[in-house]
């Protein structure tokens, strides 16, 4: 468990660093074109900052998968949620962003709320009782919601900032889907080729590919920190909900725990509402 928490903390730092690096590279790359996915991906990776950010993201993903294999899903996500504070510090110190008091408050209470949600799980998940039906229902519902978000984002009257937020939320939700599928794979009986030949491997890959393009586009057109924060919030909430519904993690331990979780969800919503506020990046 302790090793899993350490790996999750390292993943949190690396994930937010990767997001900021990819943001710097994405805004310098050609715009994403839905009809030319390969050309769009090539354009992104020709940007040095994006390529470096992607490499860091792969390292963060490996740390995340390792953490998921050693600790409960909600506990791992709680540690990753605290990474929003790393996002704010890195953005101001090294990437030229200036966050106002409102943004700091929003990021802090959102991270705190997500941490409380994870830590009030009441114990480790019952991996032997993981529900395949719940997994199918949740992931199908998330894919449907993402399709709606992406469709709304394509409307011409929507400002670019709003489009960026919608795409960021969609990307985060898909990464949450991928996390739940990967956690299921780490607990499922070994299948062909060490368990990699599985429909849930395919689900994780599809979700990851779509999230890659949605996130890159959101970074190109949205305000960097708020888009990254919203993406992280969406990913963590979906993963935590998946832990409860798929892996039978308790909603809370007793009345106090359940009340704390409900209050924490309110904190997350309030913090997410505070984060999208005017902010600017200083030159160079």
Supply database-style keywords.
1% strand, 284 residues, 11 helices, two-stranded antiparallel sheet, mainly alpha, disordered C terminus
Explain the overall architecture:
This protein has 284 residues and is mainly alpha-helical. The protein has one domain (2-279). Helix content is 75%, strand content 1%.
Secondary structure: elements and pairs:
Blueprint: H1 2-26, H2 37-45, H3 48-70, H4 73-81, H5 83-94, E1 97-98, H6 101-119, H7 132-153, H8 160-187, H9 199-221, H10 224-245, H11 254-274, E2 280-281
Antiparallel strand pairs: 1-2
Helix pairs in contact: 1-3, 1-4, 1-5, 1-9, 4-6, 4-10, 5-6, 5-10, 6-10, 6-11, 7-8, 8-9, 8-10, 9-10
Compose a concise summary of this entry.
The protein has one domain (2-279).
Strand fraction equals under 5%
The radius of gyration computed from the alpha-carbon positions, rounded to a whole number of angstroms, is 18 Å
* Average pLDDT score: 79
Side-by-side strand order of the widest sheet: 1-2
Share of helical residues: over 70%
User: How many β-strand runs?
Assistant: 2
Q: Terminal Cα separation, in Å?
A: 42 Å
Outline the biggest β-sheet: 2 strands, antiparallel
| Alpha-beta classification | mainly alpha
* Contiguous helical run count: 11
The backbone outline, from C-alpha atoms, is globular
In the predicted model, the low-confidence regions spanning at least 5 consecutive residues are: 123-127, 278-284
């Amino acid at each position: 468990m302790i090793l899993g928490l350490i790996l999750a903390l390292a993943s949190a730092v690396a994930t937010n660093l990767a997001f900021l690096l990819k943001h710097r590279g994405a805004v310098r790359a050609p715009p994403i074109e839905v009809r030319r996915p390969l050309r769009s991906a090539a354009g992104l990776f020709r940007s040095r900052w994006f390529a470096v950010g992607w490499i860091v993201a792969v390292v963060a993903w490996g740390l995340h998968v390792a953490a998921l294999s050693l600790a409960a899903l909600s506990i791992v996500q709680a540690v990753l949620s605290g990474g929003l504070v790393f996002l704010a510090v890195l953005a101001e110190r090294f990437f030229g962003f200036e966050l106002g008091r409102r943004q700091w408050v929003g990021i802090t209470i959102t991270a705190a709320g997500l941490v409380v949600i994870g830590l009030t799980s009441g114990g480790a998940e019952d991996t032997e009782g993981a529900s395949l039906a719940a997994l199918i229902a949740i992931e199908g519902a998330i894919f449907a919601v993402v399709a709606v978000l992406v469709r709304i984002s394509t409307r011409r009257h929507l400002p670019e900032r709003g489009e960026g937020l919608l795409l960021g939320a969609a990307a985060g939700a898909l990464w949450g889907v991928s996390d739940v599928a990967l956690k299921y794979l780490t607990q499922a009986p070994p299948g062909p080729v060490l368990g990699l030949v599985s429909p849930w491997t395919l689900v994780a890959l599809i979700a990851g590919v779509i999230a890659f393009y949605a996130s890159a586009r959101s970074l190109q057109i949205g305000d960097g920190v708020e888009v990254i924060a919203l993406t992280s919030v969406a990913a963590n909430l979906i993963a935590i909900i998946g832990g409860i519904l798929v892996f039978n993690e308790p909603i809370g331990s007793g009345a106090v725990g359940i009340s704390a979780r409900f209050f924490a969800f309110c904190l997350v919503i309030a913090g997410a509402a505070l984060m999208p506020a005017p902010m600017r990046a200083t030159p160079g």
